Amino acid sequence: MTTVARDPVTAADPTPPAAKPAAGPSRHRFRAVAGFAFGAALLFAVAPLLLSDFRLSLLAKYLCVAMVAIGIGLAWGRGGMLALGQGVFFGLGGYAMAMHLKLADAGPGNMPDFMLLYGQLDELPLWWRPFASPWFALPATVLLPMAVAFVLGSLVFRRRVRGAYFAILSQALAAAMVILLIGQQGTTGGTNGLTDIQGFFGYDLDDPVNQRMVYFIIAGTLLALLALTRHLMQSRYGELLVAVRDGEERVRFLGYDPATVKLVAYVVAAGMAGLAGALFVPAVGIISPAMIGIVPSIEFVIGVAIGGRATLLGPVLGAVAVAWARTALSERFPGTWTYLQGLLFVVVVAFLPGGLASLVGLLRRGDGERRPGWLRRSRRTEAEAS
Amino acid sequence: MTLFRGRRILAGAMTLVAAAALAACGSKTTDQNTSAGVTADVSGDTVKVGLLNSLSGTMAISEVTVRDSIMLAIEEINAAGGVLGKKIQPVGEDGASDWPTFAEKAEKLIREDRVAAVFGCWTSASRKAVKPVFEKNKALLFYPVQYEGLEQSPYIFYTGATTNQQIVPGLDYLKAQGAKSLYLVGSDYVFPRTANKIIKAYAEANGMKVLGEDYAPLGSTEFGTITNKVKSSGADAVFNTLNGDSNVAFFKEYKSAGLTATSMPVVSVSIAEEEVKSIGTQYLEGQLTAWNYYQTTPGAANEKFVAAYKAKYGADKPTSDPMEAAYVSVYLWKAMVEKAGAFDVEKVRQASDGITFEAPEGLVTVDGATQHIAKTARVGKVGADGLITEVWNSGAPITPDPYLKSYPWAGGLS
C-alpha cells in the first residue's frame, strides 16, 4: 500500500516513486497487461469458438451481472458500503435502453405494442419522448443511474448513514421502484416489463450473427470496466476509499471529507450497474421489475461475496460462477437445484469467507507479496478473512 | 505513474472493444429467412417435448401441479403407443418464477434439446418473456392457464380460458343474480389490472356500478384496509383477482369483518381446488368461482382423469382447471401431430383447426384462427368438503374471442 497523502504530482509522474514495494511496478504492470490479454483471449477467442450460440448468449448475460458485481466490489469491498439496492440502477439503465429500442421497433410516430394493449393512451407519454433519440437514451443508461445515486448518496453519506441502515435504505429504494413500475402498467408494461425487443440500432436481434456482436460488445465493455476499476483502485483515490472504509473518523481528521469519497464510489458503481442493465436488454431481450427488486439486488451481492469482494477479479469470477452454477444445476437437477445452490453458498461462506479469490491466497500463504496484483487484498480484509 | 498505467490499459481495452465491434460486424439484413428456426430432432424412436414450469420460487406451489398432470398425460400416451409410433420423452426445466429464466430455459429446450413442443408457463409475465423466443425460433408453446386475453401469437396454443370464456360469463352470472354494484380486489400485476379494465367496461355497458378498485402487491397479507373499504362500500358482490397467498389473508379478514357469502358474495377467478385447500374451507364455504372445469364436473372422461391422477399422486390431491387444461394440451398436440402426419411446427399449426377432444371438462375444439380453444364456462360454489360444485354453465362451448371483438362494449379495450 502506498501512502494516503501522496502528492498528486508524483502520482502522475511516469517514473516509479521510491516508496513502491520491492516487487517493482514494472512487474505489476506486466502482470496486469498479461492478465488483461489472457482475459481478452478467453472472452474474444476461446469462448466464441467453444460455445454454441445459445451458450454464448448465456455468457453474455452472466457478463452483464459481472459488470454490476465490479461496481459492488468497489462500493462494498473497497468502500464498505453494502449496496443492497443495485437492482435500481441496473433497472434504470435497462429500462432506458429498452424504452429506446421499443420506440425504435415501433417506428417513428408509433407507440410500443404494450401501451396500446394496457395503456389505452392516445399519444406517447411525455417522459417517454426523449428516449426516442439514441443521443438521449444511450447516455441516459449510465447518467440516469449515476444522477439518482448522486442525489441519494449526497443525502445519505452527509448524514453519516452507514452499515445496516444504508443497506436497508438501498433495499427500500429497490422495493419502491418495483411498486412504481408495476403500478404504472400502461406506460411501463407492469409486471411483464418491456419484452419482445426485435432490433438493436438497426440490427435484427433474432440473427445469431448479431447476437454474437452483442456478446462482443458486452465482453469488451466488461474489460474496459475492469481496467477503469483497476485504475481507480490503484490511484490515490482508491487508497482513500479503503482508508474511509477502515477508519472513517481518522480520514475525517486528516482533512478529507469521507462523504465525498464514498459518494464517488457509489456513483461509479451505479453507473456500472446502469451500463450492465443497458447491455442486458439486447442480450436477453427483456427487462422487467422481477430483475430489479429486492431479491435480484441481493443476488448481485451474493455473487460478489462468493467471489471475494475486496479484489478486482473476485466479484467478476463470483458473479459468473454463481450465474453459471445456477444454469448448470437447474438444467441437471430441475427439482432440487435450489438446495444444491444454497449448499454451495453455505460451503463457500463457511470455508472461504474471503470468497473464491482468497483460494489463491490460501494456496500461496506466507508468500503474500508474490501474489498477482489483481488478487492482492488489503491487510484489513485479510485479517477479517482468517 | 498509476494514472499513466491505467490510461494505457484503458486505451488498450477500448481499442479491443472497437476491434471486436468491427470484427463482429453484425449483418444488417432485414430478410426474415436468416432466422429459419430450429427443427425438432425426431430422428430416433422417441420425440422430445419440453416441460417449462416453476419448480422453485413463489409460483412453484401452483406450477408443480401443472407439471404433474402433463407428466400423467405423457405417461398415458406412451402406454397407448406414443405419437406417430414414437414415445414421448419429457425434458423438464425449472423456470424458477423468474421471467428471464423462463426465456433462457425456453431457448435451451428449443435449441439444445430440440424439442417438438413445449408445455408450460403460468403467469402472463412468463408467457410474455418466452413469446419472442418461440416466435424467433418458430417453435410451439402450449400455455395451459386462463389469462387476460389481448394476445394471439402464431407459435402459442392457449388451452386455458381467455376473458370471454371466464370473466365475462362470471359477470353475466352476477348480473342474472341481480347484482347492481361491484367492488374489485386484485393483486398488483398484469392479469388483474387488465381483467378489471374489462370488468369496468362491462359494468358500464350493463348498468352496474363499480364502487371501488384496490390492488395489493403480490404476496401481500395486509388486507384490513381493503376489507373495510369493501364493507363500507355496500357493494352487491366482490370480483376477486387476487393470486396465491394473498387470498388466505383476504378471506380471513373478510370473514372477521362479518362479511359472508350471502351478505356479499365474492367471485374469484384464481381460486381452484388446490387453493381452497390451502386457504381453508371454513373461510370460503359458499363463495363463488369462475372456471371451465371442476374436479366434480360430471362425465366419464373426468372420472378417468381424476382416478388416474389420484392413483399416481395420492388420494388427497385435488385436480383443478389449469391442471386439466395442461393435461388436455398434451392430447391436443398429439391429435394435431397425427392429423398433420408430422412433427413439423408449420404443418402442426395448419392441422390444428377443428381438432376436437373429449376432455375432462367436456368437448373442446381448437380454433385455428386464434389458436385458442372453445370451452364451456362454469360458475361454481365452494362446498363444506372443499370441493367446488357447479351452479351454472354456459350450456355449450364458447368460441374464444381473445380481443373481445364480438362485444360492442369492449370496443375501446384493444
TrEMBL record, chain A:
<dbReference type="GO" id="GO:0005886">
    <property type="term" value="C:plasma membrane"/>
</dbReference>
<dbReference type="InterPro" id="IPR001851">
    <property type="entry name" value="ABC_transp_permease"/>
</dbReference>
<feature type="compositionally biased region" description="Low complexity">
    <location>
        <begin position="1"/>
        <end position="13"/>
    </location>
</feature>
<keyword id="KW-0812">Transmembrane</keyword>
<keyword id="KW-1003">Cell membrane</keyword>
<feature type="transmembrane region" description="Helical">
    <location>
        <begin position="83"/>
        <end position="101"/>
    </location>
</feature>
<dbReference type="Pfam" id="PF02653">
    <property type="entry name" value="BPD_transp_2"/>
</dbReference>
<protein>
    <submittedName>
        <fullName>Urea ABC transporter permease subunit UrtC</fullName>
    </submittedName>
</protein>
<keyword id="KW-1133">Transmembrane helix</keyword>
<feature type="region of interest" description="Disordered">
    <location>
        <begin position="1"/>
        <end position="25"/>
    </location>
</feature>
<keyword id="KW-0472">Membrane</keyword>
<feature type="transmembrane region" description="Helical">
    <location>
        <begin position="213"/>
        <end position="232"/>
    </location>
</feature>
<feature type="transmembrane region" description="Helical">
    <location>
        <begin position="56"/>
        <end position="76"/>
    </location>
</feature>
<dbReference type="InterPro" id="IPR017778">
    <property type="entry name" value="ABC_transptr_urea_perm_UrtC"/>
</dbReference>
<dbReference type="InterPro" id="IPR043428">
    <property type="entry name" value="LivM-like"/>
</dbReference>
<feature type="transmembrane region" description="Helical">
    <location>
        <begin position="30"/>
        <end position="50"/>
    </location>
</feature>
<feature type="transmembrane region" description="Helical">
    <location>
        <begin position="135"/>
        <end position="157"/>
    </location>
</feature>
<feature type="transmembrane region" description="Helical">
    <location>
        <begin position="339"/>
        <end position="363"/>
    </location>
</feature>
<feature type="transmembrane region" description="Helical">
    <location>
        <begin position="164"/>
        <end position="183"/>
    </location>
</feature>
<dbReference type="GO" id="GO:0015658">
    <property type="term" value="F:branched-chain amino acid transmembrane transporter activity"/>
</dbReference>
<feature type="transmembrane region" description="Helical">
    <location>
        <begin position="310"/>
        <end position="327"/>
    </location>
</feature>
Automatic annotation (TrEMBL), chain B:
<dbReference type="InterPro" id="IPR017777">
    <property type="entry name" value="ABC_urea-bd_UrtA"/>
</dbReference>
<protein>
    <submittedName>
        <fullName>Urea ABC transporter substrate-binding protein</fullName>
    </submittedName>
</protein>
<dbReference type="InterPro" id="IPR028082">
    <property type="entry name" value="Peripla_BP_I"/>
</dbReference>
<keyword id="KW-0732">Signal</keyword>
<feature type="signal peptide">
    <location>
        <begin position="1"/>
        <end position="23"/>
    </location>
</feature>
<dbReference type="Pfam" id="PF13433">
    <property type="entry name" value="Peripla_BP_5"/>
</dbReference>
